[in-house]
Amino acid sequence: MTGNMLIAQSGGPSMVINQSLVGAVLAAKASSKIVEIYGALHGIQGILDEAFVDLRAEPEEVLLRVAQTPSSALGSVRRKPTPEDCRAIFAVLARRDIRYFFYIGGNDSAETANIIAEEAGRQGYDLRCFHIPKTIDNDLLCNDHTPGYGSAARFVACAVRGDDLDNRALGGVKIDVIMGRNAGFLTAAAALARQDPDDGPHLLYFPERPFTLDRFVADVAECMNRHGRCVVAVSEGIRGPDGRPIAEAFSTEVDAHGNRQLTTGALGERLAAAIRQRLNVPRVRADTFGFIQRCFVGCVSETDANEARLVGSVAVQAAVGGKYQNGTVTLTRLPGATYQIDYAIAPLPAVARNTRSLPDRYINPEGNNVTGLFLDYARPLVGPLPVTARLNALRGRNA
Amino acid sequence: MTGNMLIAQSGGPSMVINQSLVGAVLAAKASSKIVEIYGALHGIQGILDEAFVDLRAEPEEVLLRVAQTPSSALGSVRRKPTPEDCRAIFAVLARRDIRYFFYIGGNDSAETANIIAEEAGRQGYDLRCFHIPKTIDNDLLCNDHTPGYGSAARFVACAVRGDDLDNRALGGVKIDVIMGRNAGFLTAAAALARQDPDDGPHLLYFPERPFTLDRFVADVAECMNRHGRCVVAVSEGIRGPDGRPIAEAFSTEVDAHGNRQLTTGALGERLAAAIRQRLNVPRVRADTFGFIQRCFVGCVSETDANEARLVGSVAVQAAVGGKYQNGTVTLTRLPGATYQIDYAIAPLPAVARNTRSLPDRYINPEGNNVTGLFLDYARPLVGPLPVTARLNALRGRNA
Fold first, then answer.
1. pTM summary value
2. Are B327 and B343 in contact (CB under 8 A)?
3. pLDDT value at position B353?
4. What are phi and psi of A289, to 5 degrees?
5. Residue B254: what pLDDT?
6. Closest by CA position to A392, among listed B318, B238, B56
7. Among the four A49, B156, B211, B381, which has the fewest Cβ within 10 Å?
8. Which residue of chain B is at minimal alpha-carbon distance from A166?
């Protein structure tokens, strides 16, 4: 089938989401089945507004620089299409003779792609509709990991390694609050900061395990006894024993997918206040890493960038190949000592509805640290970190 | 004079403070006048405790890796010596035959070095006492800039460039709170993020200009009208018309030098709340960059690293040279088109007591942005930023 192509980006940006955009555009330019290559601005909002740009007209050297640029070059949106949206979208697709549609994003974006694919089926409109995976949370089902995670994880590991060195210099307790509403993958990446056995982060808390202040304070007290200092990595999404996110009490904003906005400094400040009140620690600090985890310029995992580029082109090749009407690209790690990824196509509903959590085997029995299995899993995704070292005289010595 | 050397680090760590440490140690190893090279742990606290390490014993390859490592390898402290401290310090110096003392830090550390130098004079103890400049705030007098600033400024510029791209993708108002208690230099560095005329940060607020919520909200409203979005860089140290830091209301902790701890998420949240209440903006977010501004691993300005190394060796060379009894190393920029720095020695009191602010010529008349002069000043300190680009079709187009 010959026709025009439309591509858009959705959800929270990542450091490599433009690699996927450019991977798809370059693959489309190489295919005889694709005529025009449109980019819609701000996801489905740009389809509704017919706010399109001509991506075929972009010079290759510009595309290659855009690929290296964090955040969504076409703009993004958090919007779930209503039935009226779907009707309006199909009017635009038909008028423009768009036969290939690609939506880059997380599970919410896969859901949107699935809604559009199902509507195309009902209307008998011949459309190839593909989701291209992206999420820093790493929570898509059917995937070993998702593009975007490796670079965000690299930022977290670099930040926490620096922060651990800072805490060694000035002492006390440092709490770092890390993104990840429902999945602890990004918080877990903080553990990659460690080189020596006494390096922080010493404690990690995930949404996957119930969190109580009593247990937290006891853990910190034990760490202070052992190391004379304590660095904590905690997910913004930690939940109390009732299952409700602890940070929710500090936020009221809800997006179109029903997700409550959690990124605020209040959680870290509250945890710090608990330590100050209950333990005799002279210096307690909290940082909330915030949005720069997903868009910082100059902290990309090379593996992540390469994989993000590839999933874009795999999606286009699957779409023009004719074997699949709709689908999403999945990444499977091949067994063996060498890190190697197999790319395949799965049905949209397989990743659209639910998300996955940090598996049990990656969390220690106490629920306050990662396992060696997690480190083995995450290291190739993040790549080697910059060289840092301590004085020989101080290695193995507290503070 | 032949004798032993003692070096220590003080105040807030930086990304290149270990370059200065290693620069001093390597210069000391090259001098026949210096016998033992001791490092005191945690600044003057380590002198009082006689917690010393033997830096001559460290292999050169370890020193070179430590030089690349953020934060203070010897540990740090925020402590101003009392008269009793001084007596105890001199007992240690005399017992160890320490004749060369180097203290790396900001103006508080220069003050400590000066107290020790004056006490040596009173006691008739022959001591060369030198301060080695370090501060991410860039607020030392008698200096074009100080080592540590360029790398922290680079972090801020990379973070804000990414954040501006993120804001383009999702819209609304984004507020970034940046370190700098009394001087706006680090906040001003956010302006280096801009490439295109409509790039953020669109508004910058410094401690050097009175800040009011009314004016802030009006500025943001005007920016939203013009660009349809707004990225704000604001110093943690902004002051109301009464001269009191606005963030002080949210903090009670005070360090030994009388500085109130300002780094908290509360200022950003309060500014965001003001926008939400008074303007009809659907998406308002605030991040407080926090401690990773000074210790992030993998974001160093090459110029800053080289200069930090050099000030360490210049201090040692001045101390063994015999021309100066005490002093601090200063950096002066030579006139001309090519960036070039002259290193000299100034008396300790010249940098110890007061600090400098962002000069008027670097702030626009409205007090909410930098001037081109500032960009010319800061660019060589930070170095070229990683390549980023927008699609040609979108350049010059809002959002």
1. 0.96
2. no
3. 85
4. -65, -35
5. 58
6. B56
7. A49
8. B71
A366-376 tens-digit pLDDT? 999 999 999 99
Assess whether pLDDT exceeds 70 at residue B251: no
Q: Does residue B136 contact residue B14 with C-beta atoms inside 8 Å?
A: yes
Distance from CA of B45 to the nearest CA of A (A): 12
Closest-CA residue in chain A for B193?
A: A297
- Rounded mean pLDDT of B156-185? 96
B271 — pLDDT class (breaks 50, 70, 90) = very high
Q: Is the pLDDT at A87 greater than 60, yes or no? A: yes
Please name the residues in contact with B95: beta carbons below 8 A apart, sequence gap of 6 or more.
Answer: none
Q: Kindly indicate whether the ipTM for this predicted assembly is greater than 0.85, answering yes or no.
A: yes
Mean pLDDT of B307-330: 97
Query: From the CA of B360, how many Å to the nearest CA of chain A?
Result: 30
Per-residue pLDDT band for A256 (boundaries 50, 70, 90) equals: low
Model pLDDT, residue A260: 58
Residue type at B303 in one-letter notation: T
| Alpha-carbon span B89 to A102, nearest angstrom | 69
3-state secondary structure B89-146: HHHHHHHCCEEEEEEEECHHHHHHHHHHHHHHHHHCCCCEEEEEECCCCCCECCCCCC
- The residue-averaged pLDDT of A258-280 equals 81
Among A15, A75, A162, the residue with its CB nearest the CB of B297 is A162
CA angle B269, B274, B280 (to 5 degrees): 115
Helix (H, G, I), strand (E, B) or coil at A42: coil
8 Å CB contact between A223 and A203: yes
Amino acid identity at B292: I
pLDDT of residue B380: 98
Tell me what pLDDT residue B358 has.
97
- Cβ of A265 within 8 Å of Cβ of B265? The answer is yes
Picking from B397, B313, B326, the residue whose alpha carbon sits closest to that of residue B121 is: B326
pLDDT for position A395: 86
Closest CA to B262 of B271, B274, B253: B253
The residue among A245, A236, A235 whose CA lies nearest residue A201 is A235
Instruction: For residue A134, give both structure tokens.
Output: 């992206």
Take residue B188 and report the two structure tokens written for it: 């001003």
The catalytically annotated residue of B49, B85, B126, B137 is B137
